[in-house]
Structures are given as C-alpha cells and as structure tokens.
Design brief:
- It contains 8 helices and 7 strands.
- It is an alpha/beta fold.
- A 7-stranded parallel β-sheet has the order 3-2-1-4-5-6-7, with helices on both faces.
- Helix 2 crosses helix 8 and helix 5 runs parallel beside helix 6.
- The radius of gyration is 18 Å and the shape is globular.
- The two termini are 35 Å apart.
Amino acid sequence: MSASAAAAATDSPSSSSAPRLQGKVALVTGGASGIGEAIVRLFRQHGAKVCIADIHDEAGQQVCRSLGGDPDVLFVHCDVTVEEDISQAVDAAAEKFGTLDIMVNNAGITGDKVTDIRNLDFAEVKKVFDINVHGMLLGMKHAARIMIPNSKGSIVSLASVASVMGGLGPHAYTASKHAVAGLTKSVALELGRHGIRVNCVSPYAVPTALSMPHLPQGEHKGDAVRDFLAFVGSEANLKGVDLLPKDVAEAVLYLASDEARYISALNLVVDGGFTSVNRNLKAFED
C-alpha cells in the first residue's frame, strides 16, 4: 500500500449516504496529495465543487485527471507563503463556481528533525511558520473577504496533536501547530458575528509523504506505510484501528458541513484518545 493509495482511500462511500456538501464551493490548500487529496475526494463525493490549491502543479493536475476531468474540480497553482497566490486562488474559485463556502487550510510542513535546540536553524523555523501559520492566516483573511458579504461560511484548518502537547514533533512544528489552534479561536471570535464558523482538526500521526520520513530509522523494514502504521499503532492508545487520511477528511467534512452549524472555535482532536490519557498506566497492565 503506497502513501498515495492511503491518501486516496476515500473513493468508497462514507458513513453518510446523503451528500452533505451539495451546492457548496470549497477551496483546499495542499490538496494535491496526502490529507489534502483525501479531503478533495471526499468533498467532491459529497457534492461540493472543489478548487485544489497547491504548489505541486503536476500532482494537482493528476488529481483532476483521476477524477475524470470533472468540471466541478479546479486546480490553481498556489504558494501559501505568497499572499497574491492565495488571493488569486480564492478569486479563481469564486469566479468559476460563483462563491466560496468552505476554506480548508491544509498546506503544511514538518520541518527538519532537530533534537538539540542548539542546532536550530532559524531560517528553517521561519519557513515552517511561513507555511503552517502565516499561510493559514492569509487563507482565513481572503476566505473572509468572500464569506463576510454572504454572512456565512466555514473555515477549517489542519493542526496536529502537536497543538495540544509537546514532544510529538520538531520545536518549530509544535510551536506552529499551537499557533494554529490559537489563531482558530481568535479568528472565530471575530468572524462569528458574520455567521462564519472557524475550526481546526488535530490528527495523530497519519501515513503521508509528509510524516513517514519522521519514522525512526530502526523502524524501517520494507513497506513504508505498513512500517509506519505498525510503529504508530504500537504507541497509540486506541488499538485495532489505523488512522488514515480518509479518517481526517471525515472530521474536516463534518466541520465543513451544516451538521456542525453551531460549532466554532473548536480544535477537534482525532487521535483515539492519545493526548487525553496517561500512557504511563501501561506499566500497571501486568
């Protein structure tokens, strides 16, 4: 099973048979691969017209081709660190499909694995923040430009379990995801008066090309996805279930849909209880 196959595993029907985003228009940054691609596929399955915004042009076009050249799927080149790119992506979606109902700020990076803060490269830290925080803030800004006149909309950003505890990623990544959670609350306060909901989703480790390189070297045995899931599963709280991109996409779908019409400023943690239980109690299981 490849990382792209895991990411694209949303082609089977989701838990709800009725389309939950019928008539909605969504923009997904980083929608050409991984969790973003899973979100694009699930949103389209549920009736949304989707604009994929990504820096990887060929991958984005490939997703469009894999959906059969669907006229309700648009790809635009977008570097989320460039405000003009985000502004143009939002405008492209609104011009082609008539409006923007859902903004998914998904694009992000983990940054370098640094285990000694004395070796921290500040240029690398700035790069992580430019993408993971500033890019999401710009996404919120330009989505609001379209949503406020309509007095409705849903903005969902991707954070991480690293948004609620330390030790689960590099320092810059952890700090950036804490910032996303705080930014979500702050912007939700402002946009609530306009009928716009702002939430974020914080998943546990998911097998994508972004996360799998962070698997400890000793755990690499052959198949990348299988090895990743085996290692993560050994550390997980909830056993018997592997967290895949489609599971994160389902959480984003819920927050984007009208089923969550009175939910805002929420950090929805999708981790099988990992961050909420004392895993040291494993010592008493025997």
